[in-house]
Design brief:
The protein is an alpha+beta fold and about 280 residues long. It has 7 helices and 12 strands. It has a single domain, classed as Deoxyribonuclease I, Chain A, CATH 3.60.10. Helix content is about 25%, strand content about 25%. The longest helix has 19 residues.
Protein backbone atom coordinates (compact mmCIF):
# COMPACT_ATOMS: atom_id res chain seq x y z
CA UNK A 1 0.00 0.00 0.00
CA UNK A 2 1.41 3.37 -1.03
CA UNK A 3 1.65 6.20 1.43
CA UNK A 4 -0.78 9.05 0.93
CA UNK A 5 0.27 12.36 2.43
CA UNK A 6 -2.29 13.94 4.74
CA UNK A 7 -3.71 17.25 3.60
CA UNK A 8 -2.44 19.93 5.98
CA UNK A 9 -3.66 23.46 5.34
CA UNK A 10 -1.12 26.06 6.44
CA UNK A 11 -0.27 29.63 5.50
CA UNK A 12 1.55 29.81 2.17
CA UNK A 13 4.82 30.76 3.90
CA UNK A 14 4.73 27.48 5.85
CA UNK A 15 3.42 25.04 3.27
CA UNK A 16 6.87 23.91 2.12
CA UNK A 17 7.51 22.59 5.64
CA UNK A 18 4.16 20.81 6.12
CA UNK A 19 5.43 17.31 5.33
CA UNK A 20 8.66 15.69 4.29
CA UNK A 21 9.10 12.29 2.70
CA UNK A 22 12.42 10.48 3.18
CA UNK A 23 13.26 7.21 1.42
CA UNK A 24 16.13 4.78 1.11
CA UNK A 25 16.81 2.41 -1.77
CA UNK A 26 19.69 0.15 -2.72
CA UNK A 27 19.42 0.68 -6.47
CA UNK A 28 22.14 -1.80 -7.48
CA UNK A 29 23.72 0.52 -10.11
CA UNK A 30 22.34 4.02 -10.57
CA UNK A 31 23.41 4.25 -14.20
CA UNK A 32 21.55 1.06 -15.08
CA UNK A 33 18.43 2.19 -13.22
CA UNK A 34 18.34 5.97 -13.51
CA UNK A 35 15.10 5.84 -15.54
CA UNK A 36 13.41 3.74 -12.86
CA UNK A 37 14.71 6.08 -10.15
CA UNK A 38 13.50 9.27 -11.82
CA UNK A 39 10.13 7.71 -12.64
CA UNK A 40 9.75 6.47 -9.06
CA UNK A 41 10.65 9.87 -7.61
CA UNK A 42 8.00 11.53 -9.72
CA UNK A 43 5.31 9.02 -8.80
CA UNK A 44 6.02 9.05 -5.06
CA UNK A 45 6.58 12.74 -4.31
CA UNK A 46 9.81 12.02 -2.41
CA UNK A 47 11.78 14.91 -0.92
CA UNK A 48 14.99 13.09 0.02
CA UNK A 49 16.19 9.76 -1.36
CA UNK A 50 19.22 7.97 0.05
CA UNK A 51 20.63 5.44 -2.39
CA UNK A 52 23.23 2.72 -2.06
CA UNK A 53 25.29 0.58 -4.42
CA UNK A 54 25.57 3.35 -6.98
CA UNK A 55 28.49 1.46 -8.58
CA UNK A 56 30.11 4.45 -10.21
CA UNK A 57 32.66 7.18 -9.71
CA UNK A 58 31.39 10.61 -8.75
CA UNK A 59 32.08 11.97 -12.24
CA UNK A 60 30.00 9.16 -13.76
CA UNK A 61 26.90 9.86 -11.68
CA UNK A 62 23.80 10.89 -13.72
CA UNK A 63 23.33 14.32 -12.15
CA UNK A 64 21.66 15.86 -15.21
CA UNK A 65 18.76 13.40 -15.29
CA UNK A 66 17.95 14.21 -11.67
CA UNK A 67 18.38 17.96 -12.15
CA UNK A 68 15.88 17.78 -15.01
CA UNK A 69 13.15 16.73 -12.55
CA UNK A 70 14.14 19.18 -9.81
CA UNK A 71 16.62 17.24 -7.69
CA UNK A 72 20.23 17.77 -6.66
CA UNK A 73 22.64 15.08 -5.50
CA UNK A 74 25.64 14.63 -3.27
CA UNK A 75 27.67 11.56 -4.16
CA UNK A 76 30.44 9.41 -2.74
CA UNK A 77 31.82 6.88 -5.22
CA UNK A 78 35.17 5.36 -6.04
CA UNK A 79 34.76 2.76 -8.79
CA UNK A 80 32.27 0.12 -9.94
CA UNK A 81 31.78 -1.16 -6.40
CA UNK A 82 29.76 0.16 -3.47
CA UNK A 83 28.92 3.89 -3.60
CA UNK A 84 26.28 6.00 -1.84
CA UNK A 85 24.41 9.22 -2.58
CA UNK A 86 21.76 11.61 -1.29
CA UNK A 87 19.20 13.03 -3.71
CA UNK A 88 17.10 15.99 -2.57
CA UNK A 89 14.71 18.69 -3.69
CA UNK A 90 15.95 21.05 -0.98
CA UNK A 91 19.58 22.13 -0.47
CA UNK A 92 21.90 19.59 1.13
CA UNK A 93 24.23 21.27 3.61
CA UNK A 94 27.10 20.20 5.86
CA UNK A 95 27.87 17.30 3.55
CA UNK A 96 30.00 14.62 5.17
CA UNK A 97 31.81 11.74 3.48
CA UNK A 98 32.30 8.63 5.67
CA UNK A 99 32.13 9.07 9.46
CA UNK A 100 34.57 9.53 12.31
CA UNK A 101 36.97 6.63 12.68
CA UNK A 102 35.61 4.74 9.66
CA UNK A 103 37.75 1.61 9.16
CA UNK A 104 39.44 0.69 5.91
CA UNK A 105 39.35 -2.61 4.08
CA UNK A 106 42.32 -3.70 2.04
CA UNK A 107 43.88 -0.29 2.61
CA UNK A 108 40.86 1.45 1.05
CA UNK A 109 38.31 3.72 2.70
CA UNK A 110 35.31 2.33 0.86
CA UNK A 111 32.49 4.69 -0.23
CA UNK A 112 29.79 3.41 2.11
CA UNK A 113 28.52 6.42 4.06
CA UNK A 114 27.46 9.95 3.19
CA UNK A 115 25.48 12.40 5.33
CA UNK A 116 23.97 15.85 4.91
CA UNK A 117 21.44 18.11 6.57
CA UNK A 118 18.23 18.89 4.70
CA UNK A 119 15.35 20.93 6.09
CA UNK A 120 16.68 20.51 9.61
CA UNK A 121 17.15 16.72 9.47
CA UNK A 122 20.53 15.00 9.37
CA UNK A 123 20.20 12.16 6.83
CA UNK A 124 22.72 9.36 6.35
CA UNK A 125 22.88 7.04 3.35
CA UNK A 126 24.61 3.85 4.52
CA UNK A 127 25.77 0.74 2.75
CA UNK A 128 26.98 -1.59 5.50
CA UNK A 129 29.64 -4.15 4.46
CA UNK A 130 28.25 -7.58 3.62
CA UNK A 131 30.56 -9.64 5.78
CA UNK A 132 30.88 -12.52 3.27
CA UNK A 133 31.09 -15.30 5.86
CA UNK A 134 31.28 -15.55 9.63
CA UNK A 135 34.97 -15.47 10.53
CA UNK A 136 36.03 -13.83 7.26
CA UNK A 137 38.17 -10.71 7.48
CA UNK A 138 35.30 -8.85 5.81
CA UNK A 139 33.03 -9.97 8.65
CA UNK A 140 35.41 -8.44 11.21
CA UNK A 141 35.51 -5.29 9.09
CA UNK A 142 31.69 -5.18 9.07
CA UNK A 143 31.48 -5.36 12.86
CA UNK A 144 34.15 -2.69 13.27
CA UNK A 145 32.39 -0.48 10.71
CA UNK A 146 29.08 -0.77 12.57
CA UNK A 147 30.74 -0.07 15.91
CA UNK A 148 32.33 3.17 14.68
CA UNK A 149 29.08 4.28 13.06
CA UNK A 150 27.18 3.59 16.28
CA UNK A 151 29.60 5.81 18.19
CA UNK A 152 28.90 8.73 15.88
CA UNK A 153 25.16 8.05 15.89
CA UNK A 154 25.04 7.98 19.68
CA UNK A 155 26.64 11.43 19.85
CA UNK A 156 23.84 12.80 17.62
CA UNK A 157 20.91 10.98 19.20
CA UNK A 158 19.37 14.10 20.76
CA UNK A 159 18.99 15.79 17.35
CA UNK A 160 16.78 14.89 14.33
CA UNK A 161 18.75 12.13 12.56
CA UNK A 162 17.76 9.46 10.04
CA UNK A 163 20.16 6.54 9.60
CA UNK A 164 18.98 5.05 6.32
CA UNK A 165 20.22 2.34 4.05
CA UNK A 166 21.15 -1.26 3.44
CA UNK A 167 22.34 -2.56 6.81
CA UNK A 168 23.04 -6.12 5.62
CA UNK A 169 21.68 -7.34 8.96
CA UNK A 170 18.38 -9.15 9.59
CA UNK A 171 17.73 -8.25 13.25
CA UNK A 172 14.80 -10.67 13.78
CA UNK A 173 14.21 -14.26 12.75
CA UNK A 174 11.12 -13.06 10.89
CA UNK A 175 13.37 -10.88 8.72
CA UNK A 176 14.43 -13.93 6.69
CA UNK A 177 12.12 -16.34 4.90
CA UNK A 178 13.61 -19.45 6.53
CA UNK A 179 15.73 -18.99 9.63
CA UNK A 180 17.08 -22.55 9.53
CA UNK A 181 18.65 -21.98 6.11
CA UNK A 182 20.66 -19.09 7.55
CA UNK A 183 22.08 -21.01 10.48
CA UNK A 184 25.77 -20.12 10.80
CA UNK A 185 25.60 -17.49 8.04
CA UNK A 186 26.11 -13.77 8.01
CA UNK A 187 23.28 -11.25 8.48
CA UNK A 188 21.71 -13.23 11.34
CA UNK A 189 24.71 -13.99 13.56
CA UNK A 190 24.52 -12.84 17.21
CA UNK A 191 27.42 -10.33 16.85
CA UNK A 192 25.76 -8.67 13.84
CA UNK A 193 22.42 -8.47 15.59
CA UNK A 194 24.09 -7.08 18.69
CA UNK A 195 25.76 -4.44 16.51
CA UNK A 196 22.37 -3.46 15.09
CA UNK A 197 20.87 -3.35 18.59
CA UNK A 198 23.43 -0.78 19.67
CA UNK A 199 21.67 1.82 17.54
CA UNK A 200 18.41 1.08 19.33
CA UNK A 201 20.16 1.20 22.68
CA UNK A 202 21.55 4.62 21.72
CA UNK A 203 18.01 5.97 21.32
CA UNK A 204 17.17 5.23 17.67
CA UNK A 205 13.89 3.61 16.62
CA UNK A 206 13.11 1.31 13.72
CA UNK A 207 10.25 3.58 12.74
CA UNK A 208 9.20 1.65 9.64
CA UNK A 209 8.79 -1.60 11.55
CA UNK A 210 6.63 0.18 14.11
CA UNK A 211 4.12 0.98 11.36
CA UNK A 212 4.85 -1.86 8.91
CA UNK A 213 5.72 -4.87 11.10
CA UNK A 214 5.81 -7.39 8.25
CA UNK A 215 7.51 -7.37 4.87
CA UNK A 216 10.85 -7.96 3.19
CA UNK A 217 13.01 -5.38 1.39
CA UNK A 218 15.34 -7.65 -0.59
CA UNK A 219 14.92 -10.71 -2.81
CA UNK A 220 17.81 -12.41 -4.62
CA UNK A 221 17.54 -12.53 -8.40
CA UNK A 222 18.14 -16.28 -8.50
CA UNK A 223 15.91 -19.28 -7.71
CA UNK A 224 12.65 -17.37 -8.16
CA UNK A 225 13.12 -15.78 -4.75
CA UNK A 226 10.76 -12.90 -5.43
CA UNK A 227 7.79 -14.86 -6.82
CA UNK A 228 8.14 -17.22 -3.86
CA UNK A 229 8.52 -14.30 -1.44
CA UNK A 230 11.80 -15.74 -0.17
CA UNK A 231 13.24 -12.45 0.94
CA UNK A 232 15.00 -10.60 3.70
CA UNK A 233 14.38 -7.39 5.62
CA UNK A 234 17.76 -5.65 5.64
CA UNK A 235 16.96 -2.06 4.56
CA UNK A 236 16.02 0.30 7.38
CA UNK A 237 15.35 3.85 8.48
CA UNK A 238 16.47 4.27 12.08
CA UNK A 239 15.30 7.59 13.51
CA UNK A 240 16.61 9.36 16.57
CA UNK A 241 13.91 10.01 19.15
CA UNK A 242 13.48 13.71 18.20
CA UNK A 243 12.80 12.61 14.60
CA UNK A 244 10.86 9.45 15.43
CA UNK A 245 8.24 11.49 17.28
CA UNK A 246 7.49 13.34 14.02
CA UNK A 247 6.92 10.26 11.83
CA UNK A 248 3.38 10.18 10.46
CA UNK A 249 3.60 7.25 8.04
CA UNK A 250 5.83 4.54 6.58
CA UNK A 251 5.83 1.98 3.80
CA UNK A 252 7.86 -0.61 1.93
CA UNK A 253 7.30 -0.31 -1.83
CA UNK A 254 7.27 -4.01 -2.70
CA UNK A 255 5.89 -3.35 -6.19
CA UNK A 256 9.17 -1.74 -7.22
CA UNK A 257 10.76 -5.22 -7.25
CA UNK A 258 8.52 -6.07 -10.20
CA UNK A 259 9.13 -5.46 -13.88
CA UNK A 260 12.10 -5.33 -16.16
CA UNK A 261 15.35 -3.95 -14.80
CA UNK A 262 14.31 -3.92 -11.14
CA UNK A 263 16.85 -3.71 -8.34
CA UNK A 264 16.95 -6.66 -5.96
CA UNK A 265 16.04 -4.21 -3.16
CA UNK A 266 12.95 -2.00 -2.87
CA UNK A 267 12.44 1.51 -1.50
CA UNK A 268 11.59 2.07 2.15
CA UNK A 269 9.84 5.36 3.03
CA UNK A 270 8.73 7.51 5.92
CA UNK A 271 6.71 10.71 6.15
CA UNK A 272 7.48 13.24 8.86
CA UNK A 273 5.74 16.36 10.11
CA UNK A 274 8.45 18.74 8.93
CA UNK A 275 6.70 21.80 10.34
CA UNK A 276 7.52 20.54 13.83
CA UNK A 277 11.23 20.16 12.97
CA UNK A 278 11.37 23.89 12.40
CA UNK A 279 9.22 24.77 15.39
CA UNK A 280 11.76 23.44 17.89
Amino acid sequence: MKLQRPLILLPVSMQCWAAMRIATWNVNSIRARIDRVTDWLGRNDVDVLAIQETKCREDQFPYSELEAIGYQAEVLGLNQWNGVALISREPLTDVQHHFAGVPQFGGVKEPRAIAATVSGVRVYSLYVPHGRAVGDEHYAYKLDWLEKLAEEAAALADTPVALTGDFNVAPLDSDVWDRELFEGATHVSPPERAAFSRFLEAGYRDVVRELVPDGFTYWDYQRLRFPRNEGMRIDFILASEPLARLVTGASIDRDERKGRGASDHVPVLIDIDAARVHSK
